[in-house]
Structures are given as structure tokens and as C-alpha cells.
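Schema walk-through. Below, the input block comes first and the output block second. Nothing else is stored per chain. Lengths vary across the set, and this one has 395 residues.
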Amino acid sequence: MAANNTNDFWEALTDLAKEKNISMDVLIETIENSLLIACKNNYGKADNASVEIDKATGEYHVYLSKTVVDEVMDPVEEISLTDAQDISGKHQVGDIIQIEVKSKDFGRIAATAAKNTITQKIREEERKVLYEEYYELQHKVVTGVVTRFSGNNIHVNLGKLEGFLSESEQVKGEYYKPQDRIKVYIVEVKTSNKGPRILVSRTHPELVKKLFEEEVSEVRDGIVEIKSISREAGSRTKIAVWSNDEDVDPVGACVGQNGARVNAIVNELRGEKIDIVEWDENPAYLIENALSPAKVVAVIADADEKTARVVVPDYQLSLAIGKEGQNARLAARLTGFKIDIKSETQAKEAGDFLDYEEDYDDEDEYYDDEEYYDEDGEYDEEYEESESEESSEEE
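--- output ---
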């Protein structure tokens, strides 16, 4: 290859490697393979072909190993003694010599095939680099810009690639327009024929957790831990926090001065309410905290069965259950317990209240009026029926 052309080609290749963040070794290997493919396309075979590339200058040479013979039967693999001795008088029949092949001698089809091989490999490497870059961001929160819509799905520009925000991962009641900046949680990065595909979410509970890590230095540094989180996206989230430093109030750290920290997160979530409660290893205390802002009279928790009975003041029953059972559902998910919440009057009528007063102080245990929710926050009819049957048997 001519020196000037080689220099231009090598400079272009070097620039391409930097621009696409692709290894020069990979590109050199690709060029070698493309030249071998060109040889095969041109000569019908390439078993005896070899390529040498000077990594410093980019100069390359293609050779065919040929055996010296008296009579040539295969011009691709053999060379006559006369021709061999024209190169060097020392050559004899049976010698194997390297004959350089000029790439310009390759046919147009062979050259095109070589070019296509290089182009395809560059594309593959570029996709691989992008995949690895964004795979590192999986399960993290990033800021993107809304670019376009496909049906009810949204495409979000994340820099070099677009994230796909499906309708199911959007918060009901949130509306976007092109150029809106939003924070999204990267759920998964996977490969496809068209390159990396990035699935993002606005509803995932981890979005809230990661936002707290960004906003609260104590969470980011591991001083305060978010032990559990339950979320109904767009409406309400409960998080249970714990401090590894007795001098740091975990709830106060997350709330911030005058509520600055939690309000920043609420604003990012467009008004979603956030309850921050203190985690406790004692399930009774944890359940009591989880039912906040409702006040609790007593909680009896069975750690083995993962069930709990809660008694609240009559006037607090609606608050404990929440609108359409939301507060109870979120508390059940947060703690992993089935929670049975009763008012004081209901507990007395059921004959339970005296037991509560005799065996537990005000800080013991609690949960749900005549509605039952499992750890997934689902209404549990079987649990309610079993309780009714037990009551009938006692009577």
C-alpha cells in the first residue's frame, strides 16, 4: 500500500477508534480478516494466505505461500521453478516462498466484501462498547430528556442511547412533552439486533431509594440504611430507615432541615407523598411505626406466622386503614406481615381487648379493622374466613 495512502488510512482508523471507543487491536484484527476474506473471494481459497500489518505505521502486506514446482497445476498455491528463480536464483523445486499480493489486484467484489466486513465489525464493536457502558448504569437513576412518543410509550434520550419507558412503567397522572427532563430508573439493559435496548421506569420502588441516595449524604455514605420500601407510584410511598450511628437520627436525616431533602424528592416525583418511619428489629414496634401517621394502642405480632393484630383508637381507625385501604396495604408490604386492624370498640366486642390490656403495654403490637392484607398488600379473604371460623368455634 502506498505510503501516503497508508498514513491517511491509519490516521482515519485511529480517529475512528477514539471516536467510537473501540480498541485498535480489534480494528487491526478486523482488517486482517477482511483482507483474508478478499483473498478467498478473489482466488477461491485463502488457506495459504497471510497478512502482516505494522502497528506503528499502518502499512500492511498480503502474502500467498507457494510451493516451487516444475509444472504449475494450481497457480494459487504453486509457482514454477522459472518464476521462482526470477525472484531468487537460489530457489529449488519443493521450496515454499512468500509471494506478495497487491490489494489493488483484488477484484471489485472482493474489495467490497472486505469493506463490508470492516464496517460490520465496527458496528458490532460500537454496540458492544455502548452495551457495556450502559450495563454499568443498570439499577441506577439517570436523568434523561423526553424525545418522542410511540403510542403510549415514551422514548427518553439518555445521552448516547434512548431509554424505553413503557406505559406500564409510567406513573398514572404524570404527563410529559418533548424536551421535558425526567429522572428514570434503569430496570434492564439487554442486547438486540439493533443494538442495546434500555428499559426504564418511573414506578419502580428502587427509584425512590436511589433518589434518597442522591439527596441524603448519610444514605449515600451508608450511615443511614433504607431497610424496606413499599410504593404505590404517584400516590404514596413508605420507607423504613435505620441508622448505624446512634448519634444520627435516620428519619431526621432523610427529612432534612425544614423538610428540604424529602421535599426535593417529592417534587421530583411530582407530589407523591412519602412516609419515613424508623426501622425496628422488633416486629411489633416496626408495624406500629409502619402504620404512621395513625396512633396505635397495641400490636401483637407473630413472627413465625408473619401475622399481626393491631388495636387503634376508634377515631384513628380510618386513618390507620387509609383511603381504600392504602395505609394498611403499604404497611403490610413494608413489614412483610399480614395485619389485622381493629378499633378499641371492635376489639372489646370481639373479647380481645382485655387480653391486650393485660399482656401488653401501649408500645406492643397492632393492625387492621375487619380487613386483611397480606405482605403483597392484597386483600386476603381466606384469612378473614379463618378468623370468623375461630370466633364461631369459641362461641
